[in-house]
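Practice problem. Given the sequence and the SMILES for molybdenum atom, write out the predicted structure.
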Amino acid sequence: MTREISDTPPLESTPPAAKSPSKVAAGIPAILSTMKHGFSKAGVISSVSTLSRVNRFGGFDCPGCAWPDPDDHRTIAEFCENGAKAVADEATSKRITQEFWKNYTVSELSRQGDQWLNDQGRLIEPVILEAGSSNYQSISWHEAFDVIAQELVELDNPNEAIFYTSGRTSNEAAFLWQLLARAFGTNNLPDCSNMCHESSGFALNDSIGIGKGTVKLEDFNHADLILVVGQNPGTNHPRMLTALRDARKNGASVVSINPLIETGMKRFKHPQNPLEMLGTGSTIADEHLQIRINGDFALFRAVNHLLVADGSFDSDFIEEHANGFTEFRQELESIDWNEICGITGLSQDQISNLSKTIASAESVIICWAMGITQHHNSVQTIQEMVNTLLLGGHIGRPGAGVCPVRGHSNVQGDRTVGINHHCSESFASGLHASTGIEPPRATGYDAVLAAQAMLEGEAKVFLSMGGNFLSAMSDTKAISQALQNCKLTVSVSTKLNRSHLVTGSRALILPCLGRTEIDWTNSGNQFVTVENSMGVVHSSQGRNQPASSQLLSEPAIIAGIASAIERKRSMSSINWQHLAEDYDKIRSLIEQTIPGFDDYNSRVRERQGFYLPNGPRDSLKFNTDSGRANFRSHNLSHIQRDEDEFVMMTIRSHDQYNTTVYSPNDRYRGVSGGRRVVLINPEDMAKLSLSSGDSIDLNSRFNGVKRESNEWYVVEYDIPKGNIATYFPEANELIPLDSTAYGSNTPTSKSVLVSVTKTQA
Ligand SMILES: Nc1nc2c(c(=O)[nH]1)N[C@H]1C(S)=C(S)[C@@H](COP(=O)(O)OP(=O)(O)OC[C@H]3O[C@@H](n4cnc5c(=O)[nH]c(N)nc54)[C@H](O)[C@@H]3O)O[C@H]1N2
Ligand SMILES: Nc1nc2c(c(=O)[nH]1)N[C@H]1C(S)=C(S)[C@@H](COP(=O)(O)OP(=O)(O)OC[C@H]3O[C@@H](n4cnc5c(=O)[nH]c(N)nc54)[C@H](O)[C@@H]3O)O[C@H]1N2
Ligand SMILES: [Mo]
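Answer key:
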């Protein structure tokens, strides 16, 4: 039987309200919003005591984002409005009870909006949706593990199973998760970074021999120039605003490169600084370059051309540490300013000013996020930005370097401890030595390949450690079909989401402890460890009572599944239960498997944790094919649209955490009461005879396939002509599954070609 389910959020019957975007970020409205979310969800006492432990030494790591805390001190509260929302959302006092599952069929639930689903509260007991059944019903943990094990051992081949990970998972759980997948016999370990910073990892590995950033937080205080490219820190990494404000006080210039003039990059009032709260706040960006979507490769190409033409490059650094300069220089020789200005929408003066600012800066940091990583040419763009830094020798010295700003709070750590569809020879031999298993070597599925395999019937069991694969991935209709093709889909989750409703013929929801909660085992109170965006590994320990006594920790759930498999078919000599009871034992295995974790258990007990080694940052060592940093030269490319098409980017509002929607408002951008919004330039509106609040339909066309999404509302906005913006995940049904970045295979969520028509009444 196929269930009647809705794989996309419902339409909205009225247009949202729209006013001018805010001029200043944080300040009083942020405090009010923090209090509203904290108090309404978790209750006054609970929210005050929970929030006071965010990012404190001995507290828990904020699940909001991967921005680091200062190494040596913690101010009264190292959290922000949006971190507080993420914490309050997990610490909610609402619970999804057995009654709930009896009251609502899966099909009814699927017609609810994403905010409603999340607002139902914490998942507190394992439930199963049997084939042909319309409702989830209770199941014991033991039986749930047995169902999974049975489906897994019945597969013809281990590669028919997929083990997805979302980036909140701790190092300990992530290590066990990949160990389970590999002991079972597959490298099918797609994860959220395939949709996120994969392009950064791919480009940086090739350019500088490490797939991570090369700066510490401290470097922000020594920088002369910080470029913030394709990133909206005011909403997605609010604590970064403090670092940018302090950097400016220390003399740095900050330039924002973004199609939108985001409020967080204008002015900022620190919510914990009374003087700032009263005043007008601090300026964040000295300059805004309002670039066209996907213009960044062309911008940095032109900047590099000017730097080289003016002789503004560090020949000593290049000679000593870099490779490929001669070829790169040739590539830069001819440049067509008409083309560059056309692609970027910037003037030659603006670009040459940027180049002069870079040339005169002693030390430059380039930060970026999703505005750079989710295009066809993301890898090339990132490598062009690295070329800029290499020209000035801005790697491996104070105040300078690459800074891909990670999203999920432990997405970087998950990768470090082995969540990766590639299994390098060194990782495989480390894992073999520490655990005795023989990991498969063949490359597994990333997120896009996983979806394609399910669509083609080549994968049949989809297990997900956190996350919301259906709504996070591109091409919602295709993902919906893919998941429904499976025999079994399993989600280890804290909150209800749409992936629980669009399922294989059977489905399980396994509720787990969250970051904020006490994790007691037979060996006592456990803590976990995480790695932030700057390579610091530190501990995180929840102090709240668990939402229910039925919850298991992520490691316990993995051990439960693994032990159930071992009962049916031996796959290793690992004592999974021992590992799940004492996380020191998991950390010892990580230490034995992966370089850089020496004395893991003792070093991570030190207050501020420890830095993982970073060759380029620490000692200008580049683990590349050439043993040097590589200039990479690619042919200039950009997304080309027809006259009647738009380039669409899909972005986050101020009140969502990825696929979790907290409210239909986007305070800084002035939009409230709706999310089916298209931000569009007034001249484009005039051309199409559109007025604010009009309903429009969007169509995307790719490789001969048309995708449509109807009933969006027009919001006039200061955005370059020919560009529009919509929110994720509502717009994901327009992003083609096979439209991905070269090299990293990341869905092109910021480069979607769409046409716009008025909705027919
Ligand atoms: N509150 C909150 N915090 C979060 C998240 C959340 O959803 N909510 N998500 C977390 C995660 S997983 C991640 S990855 C990060 C995401 O953090 P961001 O990358 O800041 O998130 P997006 O909203 O995708 O914003 C992309 C920005 O890039 C700009 N942009 C789009 N296309 C281009 C382009 O072609 N060129 C340039 N120069 N700019 C462009 C957009 O205008 C927007 O300002 O945040 C993390 N933190
Ligand atoms: N169009 C478009 N699509 C995008 C993006 C975009 O910019 N545009 N961004 C992409 C990016 S950067 C990312 S990272 C992905 C995000 O993709 P995912 O990581 O898959 O999605 P999330 O919305 O973060 O997952 C939310 C769910 O995680 C579960 N959860 C929360 N905390 C925990 C926990 O501690 N443990 C467990 N086990 N579960 C937990 C909850 O059940 C919640 O419903 O989306 C991508 N999709
Ligand atoms: Mo992300």
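Check your answer against the key. Residues 637-758 form a domain with the Barwin-like endoglucanases fold (CATH 2.40.40.20).
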